[in-house]
Amino acid sequence: MLRLPDNRCALCGIDVKGARRRFQVYDELKAFVAARCQPTPFVYAALVARSGTHRQCMCIPCVNWKRRVNGKGGLKRCARPLLQLDQLILFMMQPGVVLEPDSRCTERLFRALRQETNPYSPSYPLPVACMIPLMRGESYAHAVTAWWEYNGRTEFFGSAGEAKRVRQAMKQGYLEAPPA
């Protein structure tokens, strides 16, 4: 059973200190995630597998994301959104097929993904765990660059979205074009 320290966000696992944290009872959070979010074998599975009635820390951006999903905001029209860290993991595995997470949270999600002390890091799939050291920055173009390097600079793509993302990264100067 995974028990997060009091200074770790329950949804993304980032280290939160001071006034930038809120608390919620874990059973309520677990019920929200199970009812409103798409299941994945990564962060979702680790979060739902835990048990307890203790208070759990959450960072302000995750609280705001939860409000947008739960409230009358733009994410409610989606059937069941992915947890933000799960969406980033899936984006790194298939850029262009899975949409990148909300751009307001980019830096925080990449920082959470890179922290070795993140309690969700054992649930990362092997490709993402191998891509993390290849990432040079904290933007989606850097994630596409890491995907490109991890896949051996392939010229074969599983979807048109992946090819489009690689072409965009090349235009922005993050990738070198393959020799003709």
Keywords:
mainly alpha; 180 residues; single chain; elongated; 43% helix; two-stranded antiparallel sheet; 8 helices
What is the H-and-E element order? Answer: EHHEHHHHHH
Give the % helix: 40-55%
Note the main sheet: 2 strands, antiparallel
Rg, nearest Å: 17 Å
Q: Number of helix segments?
A: 8
Strand order of the largest sheet: 1-2
Tell me the β content.
5-15%
Uncertain parts: none
Number of domains: 1
Oligomeric grouping of the chains: single chain
| Mean pLDDT level | 84
Total count of strands = 2
Coarse shape: elongated
**Secondary structural class:** mainly alpha
- How far is the first residue's CA from the last residue's CA? 52 Å
Architecture overview:
The chain is mainly α. The chain has one domain (18-171). It has eight helices and two strands, in the order βααβαααααα. The chain has helices at 26-36, 43-49, 60-70, 84-93, 106-114, 126-131, 140-150, 160-171, and strands spanning 21-25, 55-59. The protein has a two-stranded antiparallel ribbon with strand order 1-2. Helix 7 packs across helix 8 (160-171). The longest helix has 12 residues, at 160-171. 34% of the residues are buried. The mean pLDDT is 84.
List the helices and strands and how they pair.
Layout: E1 21-25, H1 26-36, H2 43-49, E2 55-59, H3 60-70, H4 84-93, H5 106-114, H6 126-131, H7 140-150, H8 160-171
Antiparallel strand pairs: 1-2
